[in-house]
Amino acid sequence: MRVGDNFCPGILHAVPAKDGLLLRIRVPGGLISAEELCAIARLSSAYSDGQIEITSRANIQLRAIRDEALSPVVQGLRTAGLLPSPGHDRVRNIMTSPLAGLDAEELVDTRPLVRELDERFLADPVFMDLHPKFSFGIDGGGRWFSRETDDVSLRAVKVGDGIVFRLSIGGVSSGFGVGADRVVDCMLEAARMCLRVCKELEIPVRARALLASPGAVERVLEGLSALLVPCVGSEDGRAFLEAPLGVQAMAGSEFVSVVPSVPLGRITAGQAHLMAGLAKEWSGDLRLAPWRGVVLGAIPRGAADGVVSSLRAVGLPDDGRDGYRGLSACAGNTGCEASLADVRGDAVRLADSLASSLAGRDARPGWTVNISGCEKQCAMRKGATVELVATELGYSVKIEGVTVPSVCSSNSAIEAIVAHHARLDPEAYS
Questions:
Q1: 87-99 CB burial, b ≥16 within 10 A, e <16
Q2: CA atoms within 13 Å, Cβ hemisphere of 195
Q3: β partners of residue 283
Q4: What tens digit of pLDDT does each residue of 332-362 get?
Q5: Weakly modelled stretches of the chain, pLDDT under 70
Q6: Among 102, 41, 57, which Cα is nearest to 314's?
């Protein structure tokens, strides 16, 4: 379970950071209940910094936990049902679309599959030996928003008059698929085969290690042969990079989804309580999203305006006019010893500058900015429109993949980013 010289955080595996202990709560498929979110919010208020971080795998992190507070936090999460198996604490990584069951484009609602996979996964101790970053992805064939490359993934595709789930290993299509009634069987058996082959080859239990070992993926597929059927064709599981902010229609339904902007992937305990309350009031549901946000699903269409107003009132607008759209930042020097800059403070100043320059208009589609406190660029996806990496002298800046020749101060970096956005979308600044 060791990852380099560090441990991947979990509930029972809190890791030290500059601002205190950090723990990560796995939420399979991002499917979280209002009661669970409220329980996390209460614990954050009492024992953490009052914030809830959403990760790019639709999990949750709590930071700034004092040593003496760790035990009551763990017990509180256990009581809330968020620690169903201590042995599977760090390996319960299951991804699906945050719009599962809501997306008019999907072929299959994957929520029942996620729940079945999680239940059967937890019942088998063999999976405790998976790498803590090993992940499953179940895609119902609609819009896919995760930028992560899952170790084992199945995507629903139409084949003739039926539906087959195409199997990929480490993002590479295998050329095979599985029937909709065998999805969970295939997922679990694929994980067992990955474990077996990686142990025999003495390599990490990750798909990328299998892909780098000649013949290894073929051995995994051979072990799955009784479940698989040929499923050729181009890989069409591209990710949508834009968070679908605002009120999202559900085809043929009197219900909608409401997707607010969540600045830097963090909500306060108070905001969490409000969202949970709205979901309960309107019998909707909650999903954590891989763009580090939240979806309030199945809200009655007539209640949407009131829900949007309530969210705006607590700093969660339904558009990209606040300057935070596409903006990602690490913990910065307030939370991480390795960081060389106040990354979050600079991100807030950048968002304010962008919002002012936008003058009430939405950010340009596809606009992304990564701000990292050191060269490790933790949790950042490469290829953003603008990438800032803090150094001892200031920020190194890369715009559209081209590095700016000189190191910039935070102020000059912010000015350069706002100016670049203006050049990309001059109408927004007219």
A1: ebbbbbbbbbbbb
A2: 17
A3: none
A4: 999 999 999 999 999 999 999 999 998 888 8
A5: 1-7, 233-241, 251, 425-430
A6: 41
Q: Are 330 and 56 in contact (CB under 8 A)?
A: no
Give tens-digit pLDDT for 267-297. Answer: 999 999 999 999 999 999 999 999 999 999 9
> What is the spatial distance between Cα 89 and Cα 101, in angstroms, rounded to a whole number?
27
Mean pLDDT of the chain: 92
Nearest Cα to Cα of residue 94 among 190, 187, 214, 195: 187
Q: What are the residue ranges spanned by the domains of the chain?
A: 15-90+241-313, 107-141+148-230, 327-429
Q: For residues 343 and 390, what is the distance between their CA atoms, to the nearest angstrom? A: 8
CA distance 408 to 391: 10
Q: Give CA–CA dist 205/394, Å, rounded.
A: 38
Residue 6 has what pLDDT? 53
What is the DSSP secondary-structure string of 397-415? EEETTEE-SS-B-HHHHHH
Note whether 201 and 141 are within 8 A (CB). no
Q: Report the pLDDT value the prediction gives residue 227, as an integer from 0 to 100.
A: 97
SS3 23: strand
Architecture of domain 15-90+241-313: Alpha-Beta Complex (3.90)
d(Cα 64, Cα 52) in Å, to the nearest integer?
A: 11
DSSP 145: -
Q: Cα separation of 124 and 187, whole Å?
A: 13
Q: What's the CA angle centered on 203, arms 30 and 128, to 5 degrees?
A: 40
pLDDT in the model for residue 427: 60
> DSSP secondary structure string, 337-382?
TT--S-HHHHHHHHHHHHHHHHTT-PPPTT--EEEESSTT-TTPPS
C-alpha dihedral, 115 to 117 to 121 to 124, nearest 10°: 110
Q: Which CATH superfamily is domain 327-429 in?
A: Sulfite Reductase Hemoprotein, domain 1 (3.30.413.10)
**Diameter of the chain measured on Cα atoms:** 63
Using alpha carbons only, what angle is made at residue 270 by residues 268 and 273, rounded to the nearest 5 degrees? 115
